[in-house]
Amino acid sequence: SGSGGSSTPWKTIAYATQNAAAGDTILVRPGTYWEGKILVQKASLTIRAADSANKPLVNFNHSTNPNGNYV
Fold it and tell me: What is d(CA 67, CA 46) in angstroms, rounded to the nearest whole number?
């Protein structure tokens, strides 16, 4: 995972939710994300598609990301 910025994004949505601050917005790039679980424990955290025309898909059946998509 990177630093969470647009040039070095985090690799999973779960990691992004763990490292974002309360009130942040997590922009999820297009692609399929293979997540085991996503636990949100921060107030007012927003998770949304970075591109409304190409929305991401989250698959909760796997804990690994075979496609290498980044948040």
Answer: 24
